[in-house]
Records
---
Amino acid sequence: MAQATDPTLVSPVTQPVAAPAVMPTASALRVALVQMAPVLGNCKANLELHLNAIDAARARGADLIVFPELSLTGYFLRDMVPDVALARDAEPIRRMAEAAADAALVVGFVEESSRHRFYNAAFFADEGRVRHVHRKVYLPTYGLFDEKRYFAAGERICAFDTARFGRVGILVCEDFWHLSAITVMQAEEVDVLVCISNSPARGVSGEHVRTAETYDRLTKTVAEMLGAWVVFVHRVGFEDGLCFWGGSCLVAPDASVVAQAPYFDEALVVASFDPAELRRQRILTPLARDERLLLTIEELQRIKRRRYAD
Amino acid sequence: MQTDRARHALKINPLLVESILCRFICNEIHRTGFRRGVVGLSGGIDSSTVTFLAAKALGAENVLAVTMPYKTSSPATMRDSRLVIEGLGVRTIDAPITPQIDAYFAQFLDASRMRRANKCARERMTILYDHSAAFEGLVLGTSNKSELLLGYGTLFGDMASAINPVGDLYKTQLYDLACHLGLPPSILEKQPTGDLWEGQTDEDELGFRYADVDQLLVLMVDHRYSAAQLVREGFDAEMVSRVAERVRRNHYKRRMPIIAKLSHRTMDRDFRYARDWGT
């Protein structure tokens, strides 16, 4: 396969961190949801926005600072994609990771691989270094979306261990709408699932934008089914008349919304999440414990034989 | 024609729509370095609604409402425009177009009613863009989704604008928004008219009522019902095909001119950037 010739694909995308023997049960951690509006295609201006937000979040004691999808570039990039792309070790990424210092960081960017493929990606940095990069797997190319025209699709959905937050998974927008990605994250036994998004508003008949109502259902359902914290960070502002509705939130493993940013307006919301909640919820509803992973794999293998038989 | 599905599909939450559209106007104007907007105000539902939204979004002092009556314009046009201007306190300029239109058609006495109507619409467009430069504001479009789909507008005339807050709202949805915004009753209650000639109404000219055609359009366009499904839904087969053909025939008005492709990168085909590029 052509994809396998890309060395950044076959090399590990995650810098391993030893998993703690026991899930951290220390005091509550603080997550900053950075609901912002990037300047379309202007990485320099956006880097400044990020550095300022990182400073503000750190001043409020954030342990984890999360930006939206493509936060460093804006969304409707089209032919600008190659112009704004960065290697994962590029200087602006180093600067942000260093600025976050001992706080962890999730930022959306366009990643250029050594084979000059361009990915809608997100990096996780901790203690000043990039630890993991997720490349968006499901690129919407329907309706108003045109991502497959410009981006290569990610080939991996995997979680990674962290020193403070337990096992973390990152999904980008459309990934979150696919049960396969959620199922993999459940099998990965994530404690914190971060979804960063750029979702244009569609549907204005209800109390809220219809796409916001869908995300509200998804974040709560996924948090409850996985028994995990869900950190959803979405952008605001407009691009070519498309409205990004905000509404970033932190959802607890029992599906309760712990914190929610306003709709439509920029906001820096800092909320606490207590890792001990995972234990309580997993005692009450041990869905992950009862998952039949091998059965699932066998059934999927059977379906693979049926659907992909010669 | 009233179907539950169509009625449901046309439902809007006007408060939510107002909130999005006011932010849209601010954002799309401010990002280009402007602070102000210019609207051609006829006293009809579309331009009055846009003027209301612009005043809320930008502040009345940052909105210029330009009235551009022709000698055949109905007295209601000026009366209702005044109500909007005085009610909101927006800035205004009165720029009647009768002298230049009549001078031009003195050379073409046999010009049809349609030519005269289109000429008036394009004359108004040039005035708005002139005041766009003078007032340092962007021209706000007032074409609604029903008009854009049916091609009921003048290319490079009333269809021209920098940004259009109401282009994704059907006429009947625009009424819901206008009621919510508190437009004067005389504007809400009068027959929709382009005021193209004396006594002209949109619905007479189009051959159907907005209330009916919007129900058909929302299912056909937004919900992608096939012609057969629309007929099963209770729409008249002849109306379905007439409207579908009208949407197809007028598509050119919704696109930029066709460019003959010669190079590797041609505007809008494989030279693709957002209009908000870099902002």
Note: Chain A is about 30% helix and 25% strand.
---
Amino acid sequence: MIRVVLPAHLRTLARVEGELKLDVEAPVTTRAILDALEARYPMLCGTIRDQVTHQRRAFVRFFACEEDLSQDSPDDPLPEAVAAGVEPFLIVGAMAGG
Amino acid sequence: MSGVRVLIGTRKGAFILTADGKRERWDVSGPHFGGWEIYHMKGSPADPNRIYASQSSSWFGQVIQRSSDGGKSWETVGNKFAYEGAVGNHLWYDGTQRPFEFARVWHLEPALKDPDTVYAGIQDAAMFKTTDGGQSWRELTGLRNHPSAPAWQPGAGGMCLHTILLDPRNPGRIYIAISAAGVFRSDNDGETWRPINRGLVSEQIPNPTAEVGHCVHRIAMHPSRPNVLFMQKHWDVMRSDDAGESWKDVGGNLPTDFGFPIDVHAHEPKTVYVVPIKSDSEHYLPEGKLRVYRSRTGGHEWEALTKGLPQSHCYVNVLRDAMAVDALDPCGVYFGTTGGQVYASANAGDSWTPIVRDLPSVVSVEVQTLS
């Protein structure tokens, strides 16, 4: 099971608390995780990536294993620790403000 | 027992206020959707328990919320606003052409007789419609494909379709307004559109009387006289007596004819309200006085309404969708400020009281009259 951490606003929107666990078939990629996430929580469609282009929203970042994976291809395999469920895949609302 | 429900959208969430017909004691519910911008929230005229809300953020985009119990509980519905066909371009601030790009829903207008049908005005300017309670949205492409669209340009707040008026006496007739393109009318439920800006004069554009390019801030009508339209423009308060075919300036003795909201008394179709604002760049109240101006003559002659409103050191703004009226007698008038106060008058504007204050900056105010 893949572990996913949503930012607080999206946890509220999806009506979940804490980490999510998603069943994602290999190869585990950002696209595969987001596909599974949106299938289970359709209210998140469009909040992380554009509904048409699937481009990541500008103020959303993807972190895992202390790395920023936001600029990687969504089809790149994610670290083995994420695929094995050892480390969570973090969806982060970028810091922006003063 | 009659009552009212006030739907308030702010920069950081939604609030719902309720009162009985006396409109003296208010219950405040909220924040709903805390931390999100609520550009607009409006109830269905056909079913007052059905309310739609436009929820958005720069981080997480657009969400549409729907309530079927008067705002006690909410569910997310469809939020896919995809332009149909070739996207096309519009005029950008620097004079270049730029593709239309969805940013947010500015205005939700539930249909008059069907709670599942709603029109949505979006940025970049286009019109969408749902007939399944918001689950899916389809663009009414005739507007964005109008030949004038490449000449539309954004106002300071973005190129938004911010006003939708449904004509109750002429089914299929819809008026919309876009900043900064102007007013358009459809007579076939949004299939085709034509600009209706004759008489508008905007010195800020190369051709002051151009067919499009006018920064219309808001339009309003009274349901008993849908051919009479009132407009608050970026400079000038205007009136049309012929369903938008022509407009004339009715700013009269207003201290400034700049402002954002404009609305009409529920029972007196010639009684109109505006909030004059100092501009071109200040965008706060002139002389630090919060004054609503009322005309009982369809414009030209205006009186300042100040009782209960701060008359010194007040520098808030009142945004375009932040004024509404109820249908009780006497008519109630409501408006919200960028300072987070919502003022109400239960006597058609003669006196005012804050019904809630110190909210986040108020973006929109709508009122439902409940029986």
Note: The longest helix of chain B spans residues 141-144.
